[in-house]
Amino acid sequence: MSADWVAIKTEYITTSTSYRKLAEKYGVSRVQIGNVGREEGWVALRKQHLAETLTKTLAADAGKKADRLTRIQTLTDRLLDKIEQAITELDIQLCKHTEKDRAIEYSNQERPDKPTREVIHEEEQVLEVSTIIDRMGLKQIASALRDIKEVQMLRDDLDRREQEARIANLQRQAGKDEDNRLSELEVVFAAGPEDWNE
User: Fold this and answer.
1) Rounded CA Rg of the chain
2) Do residues 130 and 95 make contact, with C-beta atoms less than 8 angstroms apart?
3) What is the DSSP letter of 110?
4) Shortest CA distance to 184 belongs to which of 8, 43, 50, 14?
5) Among residues 1, 2, 24, which one has the least CA distance to residue 11?
6) CB of 119 within 8 A of CB of 161?
């Protein structure tokens, strides 16, 4: 029965398995897997695969993060525009001025004292009047500015934590590769056991 070398090679390159585990799984000697792996450069291919996978994952994650940060920045800018507008309007108060005209028509000839129609004309104006600064509004604006600052600080802290997590992950993966290489070390004696007895 011939070993499925494509499957063995693929599993070694794309996972963190060892030659020993592959030998047990596929019923091939560990020495034979080691020889084929060395000839075909499996360790280098595994490192390349890991680097490509990590690069794609980080790129996808960075894309999502960049989109999220852009949305946060856009909302923050819109909020800042509204805050600026509110600051310019702190000492302006809107007042309504309403005028009503009422006219009654008497056109009934049979009963001249009975009104036949009532017309009400109403006109409303909204006026801007300068007043003292709205202290409650000022307090709310200050609170909104603090919230914006906290969002920015939170983003900076999250960026730092994410970077630290990525570095730790890369260090763990580098340690696993080192452990796998050490566990797959083979010692081959050129001479037979009888030559060592001498």
Assistant:
1) 40
2) no
3) S
4) 43
5) 24
6) no
Which helix (H) or strand (E) is 155 found in, with range?
helix 135-183
The answer to whether 116 touches 107, Cβ cutoff 8 Å, is: yes
Nearest to 33 by CA among 59, 3, 55, 62: 3
Q: Which residues contact 138 (CB under 8 A, 6 or more apart)?
A: 90
Helical pair 30-40 and 5-14, crossing angle rounded to 10 deg: 70
- Residue recorded with tokens 């091939």: 28
Token representation of residue 140? 């709310």
Q: Report which DSSP code applies to 193.
A: H
List the one residue out of 186, 177, 193, 179 whose CA is nearest residue 29. Answer: 186
Full pLDDT tens readout for the chain, 198 residues: 578 999 999 999 999 899 999 999 999 999 999 999 999 999 999 999 888 888 888 888 878 888 887 887 788 788 888 888 888 887 777 788 888 888 887 777 777 777 777 888 888 888 887 777 777 887 888 888 888 777 777 666 667 777 778 777 777 776 665 555 555 555 555 555 555 444
Return the axis-axis angle of helices 135-183 and 42-88, rounded to nearest 10°: 180
